[in-house]
Write a structure and sequence with these properties.
By secondary structure, chain A is an alpha/beta fold. Chain A has 6 helices and 8 strands. The longest helix of chain A is centred in the N-terminal third of the chain and has 14 residues. By secondary structure, chain B is mainly alpha-helical. Chain B is built from 7 helices and 2 strands. The two termini of chain B are 36 Å apart. The chains are: A alpha/beta, B mainly alpha. At the A-B interface, strand 1, helix 1, helix 5 and strand 7 of A face strand 1, helix 1, strand 2, helix 2 and helix 3 of B.
């Protein structure tokens, strides 16, 4: 991605949720610079819930430590309690310091990205551009709902059975045919002229 | 173990961003940086105020005021994290980390907090510049934090 490539957020509505009013204003300035069509600012996650139930938004950016509903609880609510297509809205979770208790929650709450501060507009824009081309599948199971956390799909962990229909088995099994003859292998490797 | 259901989703954001138009990345970044920069002075004033509040909490060292330390340090990171405050951000992060661990383990130590707050004041007074002095301060904080982690 080069500096001359284009980014088009002119049709996008962004929901910004931050319980720190000054940080919310700065976030808003950044998105104003990004040229979004509309931004909705909320000072709490519960206010964000009300907005989502009544308005269409295309991206959510949240940094909220409100004990009533924090960023992680909001993401879990969005992914598990709302119907499609609401539950698919991309969510970027911003955090300064994630307490020990929250690190695992960050992994499991179903956000599209966790972005840690210090934060620059360039970093945020990079994540948004990545989301635009995000090809990860959306996963729904008992313990997790959200974008696939495996950015590279190497299959299920060794020694574990896959839980997805397209997961291949890691078990190779015993040979059922005779080994190939060396001359057959040589023939496979031999360069051959091809008439085009 | 339940089977996971996977869905191929094209979000509205992805569809909108695939439309022609918009601005160049360089232009968008410049505009965002310009707008963000307008907040810098206010943010530095807020940071100074937060450090003063931390100093008061440390001076009082009142029982049950421990959660306030994490809350204040975390709020400092929330705003300082939008600018290049370098060593100040690192010191604030270290304070959050030790406060979180000490609170979780019940092994609270006020001098550990005090040394962090003093370092943050010195860094702020020095203009948040990364130099030999701030490097030495951060090195000291790392040792204090490592000791607090061991005890926690």
């Amino acid at each position: 991605m080069s500096a001359t490539d284009r980014v088009n957020l002119e049709q996008s509505t962004v929901l910004l949720i931050d319980d720190n009013p000054q940080a919310l204003d700065m976030l808003s300035s950044v998105f104003q610079g990004f040229g979004v069509k509309e931004q909705i600012k909320c000072a709490s996650a519960t206010e964000g819930v009300r907005v989502i139930q009544n308005r269409a938004v295309d991206l959510i950016v949240i940094d909220c430590a409100d004990p009533e509903m924090d960023s992680y609880a909001f993401a879990r609510w969005l992914r598990r309690e709302t119907p499609a297509p609401l539950r698919f809205i991309p969510v970027i979770l911003l955090t300064g310091h994630a307490s020990q208790a929250k690190v695992r929650e960050g992994r499991d709450c179903g956000v599209s990205f966790v972005v840690t501060k210090p934060l620059t507009p360039a970093v945020l824009l990079k994540r948004i551009l990545w989301l635009a081309g995000d090809e990860r599948e959306f996963v729904e199971c008992e313990t997790y709902v959200g974008p696939d956390r495996r950015v590279r799909n190497f299959g299920p962990p060794l020694g574990m059975a896959g839980r997805r229909k397209d997961d291949l088995s890691a078990h190779v099994g015993a040979a059922v045919e005779e080994n190939m003859d060396q001359s057959d292998i040589d023939m496979l490797m031999k360069p051959q002229r091809v008439a085009l | 173990m339940t089977e996971a259901r996977t869905l191929k989703i094209k979000t509205t954001l992805a569809r909108q961003m695939a439309q022609p138009g918009g601005r160049t990345i360089a232009d968008v970044e410049r505009r965002a940086n310009e707008r963000l920069e307008r907040h810098r002075d206010d943010v530095m004033t807020t940071i100074a105020g937060t450090i003063t509040e931390l100093e008061l909490v440390v001076a009082a060292a009142a029982p049950d005021s421990e959660p306030q330390v994490y809350r204040l340090a975390s709020s400092l990171l929330d705003t300082a994290g939008f600018f290049d405050t370098g060593p100040l951000y690192d010191a604030g992060y270290s304070l959050c980390d030790v406060a979180d661990r000490m609170q979780a383990s019940g092994a609270w130590n006020w001098p550990t907090v005090a040394v962090h707050v003093q370092a943050m004041r010195l860094i702020l007074t020095g203009g948040c510049k990364a130099d030999a002095t701030t490097e030495a301060l951060l090195l000291g904080l790392r040792s204090v934090a490592a000791k607090a982690r061991q005890e926690a």
